[in-house]
Amino acid sequence: MMAATGTFTRNPKSFSHSRHAPPPPGLKIGPNGTPIVSTGIQDLDQLLGGGVPVGSLIMVMEDSEAPHHLLLLRNFMSQGVLHRQPLLYASPAHSPRAFLGTLPAPIPPRTHLHTPSQQQEEDLRIAWQYKKYFGNEQMFVESHRGNHWDFCNEFDLRKSLDRQLLGAAHIDCVNLQDVEDLASLRDRCSAFLAPFARTEEGITCVGRVAIQSFCSPQCRYSNSDWDMLFFIKSLRSMLRSSNAVAMITFTPSVVSSSSVCMRWQHLADTLLSLRTIPDDDKEMAKLLTDYQDMFGLLHIHKVGRLNSQVPVILEATTYSLKVIRRKTLVLERLNQAPVDASGGGSLGGCSGSSSARLLDF
Amino acid sequence: MADLVCRGLRDGVLEGEYAPALLIKDTLQISLGVHVFNHFLLSLSSNISSGKAQSRGLVVVAFACPPCFYVDLLRSRGIGVASLSNWIRIVDCYSDPLGWKDKLLNSGFSAQLSSKSHDKSSVGDVECLFRDVGDAEKLSSLVFDLGRGLVGPGKGRFSVAIDSASELLRHTSLLSVSSLINNLRSHDQVASLFWLLHSDLHEPRAILSLEYLSSMVAGLEPIASPSTDAQRNHHNHLFQLEQNSRRGKLHMRLKRRNGRVKILFEEFDVEQGGIKFVPVSLGNAIRNDAILPKVQFNLQLTDKERGDRAKVILPFEHQGNGEDIKIYDGRGPIADAPKNIFPTPRLDESASATITTSSNGGKGEIHYFRDSDEEALDTDEDPDDDLDI
């Protein structure tokens, strides 16, 4: 993987000092040499630069009108179970164990016939007269799809995960309604994360923490905003000193003040937000090509990078959530529907009562 | 449409899911929430008593009106009169919510106070007096007991209507009300529930929390937005007051199972006989620009288009495929190019080359007109070669 040109490359740290030990499943080296794990959604992994850095915190801002955050959580947890990564799951529902029954099963890998053509597409096609000067030198292409089935599975949302697999997995469930105060929850988390503390020997196992709807109004601590912020901050510091990843979802509208909400967002390493879209909305159907297939929007506010000061700036930050053939979750860029040249006048006419146009270019 | 909501309440809940919960909210400007609440109550009651609904009983928690009001309302509409006690129970939190009358009576002032509060009205079975509204857990266990009493301990389901959650929020905290509603929704035997809220009495956080917990939100809005012109304000104000006391607009947001939100608008008119809903054509577009970013056209190619693009022969000397360099000078056809190239009269030396590509079903055609004939054939020189560095 060393390029022939003299550009600066960082030597990826080996997983363990003894080179004979295989790397733990579900872990690979990502940008800037950080170990990363998968979120369970291939498109999301790609957008985040391959996966989630170990030791970071993903914050998901829910929309109070839609349950899309459950999809993200399910894929995240399922991926952890498949890679035999211990999981701590906290939720305000009556029985968090019941949610485990809805985790999706993986789709068995098929042979990928189109990978070589994808490689070609990513190479720059040079079509000008200086092409004769370029010999065998190729542009450096990072192969995303090399062995991606080991790292990130595709999940079938219609089927649930094998019971035996669930039974064998190490999953701790916490009911957030029973939590009296956050100090006990913090102790629970630190007890869970203790086996994953970072040591000299490298990473042997990665843990996952999933907290759903952390600030639900029926939880006893939901009035004490500063306690919740303190909990998140201490969880993040625990994550930094251990080999684990955490995903927390919360509803920004239920948090009492906007300043607390802003602080909450700033505590995240990777910040995503979900929006719902109106049903049977003719205006939106005219505006977007895939309106019928999609059921929500995912917006990426921040992508976490643990050992780099270079921010990640994505080309597009809003993606549509779609379920292909009712099976797999994909994220796609929003595309505008072709605007009918003759229809421009009628569009302006019928929306005369509304204020400015929906979008301005 | 309001019918959609009524149907949602009637159909109840599917196995393993939370019960549908409707929140009706009104404001001081348009305080007709009670009428809307009664409308839904009546429609659900008629469905229950005629057996069309999933739930077989209804428990009404009455804060703002005495139980006899509801009984009279049902009687006046002729709903299930004969067998009221079979399917409805009313928790009376109106007469003595905090137990003060009871305490006063017990502490010896009984001579002055009439004991009217102890009289049960004629439908004694239906009512149940509750004296401790500060304790939401007690209230919820009472509701569960009454409901189970109505439908039996098995798989039967019942619905719950809370007259005014605003009153409940006055007595207990938001936390208790949220957990009460959450417990009701997740209970095995509850089919649906709905409640009324006066949104200007509470902090925004309380309202948003309750909206978060509900699956349908019906908000009442005035029909005309308040006029901003100061001079006509007085006239308009009175006119609006009068209008808003009878008519209004209902803005409904229904959370659907596929994750989308159905947004509906209807106008309603409160009349003697009841309330009438009229669907409104959406003249005002819902502002979506807050949700969507700037959306680009799709610039990505499908696989077929990519293949077609790869097949196009470029008009440059080096095709990069290792063949001998053939200089094409626009005069005659080359062996492997499509045959559509015809020589054009050369207008002047500075005619610029035009290259047009058009893909007709996979074939690329390129019309390449060379700049001028006077240039040497081998124009493959690198212009930078002239530099003496």
TrEMBL record, chain B:
Location of the protein in the cell: Cytoplasm; Nucleus
Main location: cytoplasm
Keyword Signal tagged: no
Biological-process GO terms, alphabetical: tRNA modification; tRNA wobble uridine modification
UniProt xrefs under Pfam families: Elong_Iki1 (PF10483)
Domain of life: Eukaryota
Gene Ontology CC: cytosol; elongator holoenzyme complex; nucleus
Biased amino acid composition, Acidic residues: 372-389
Region (Disordered): 349-389
Keyword Cytoplasm listed: yes
Pathway info: tRNA modification; 5-methoxycarbonylmethyl-2-thiouridine-tRNA biosynthesis
Comp. bias regions, Polar residues: 351-360
Keywords per UniProt: Cytoplasm, Nucleus, tRNA processing
Family affiliation: Belongs to the ELP5 family.
Protein name: Elongator complex protein 5
Protein's organism: Amborella trichopoda
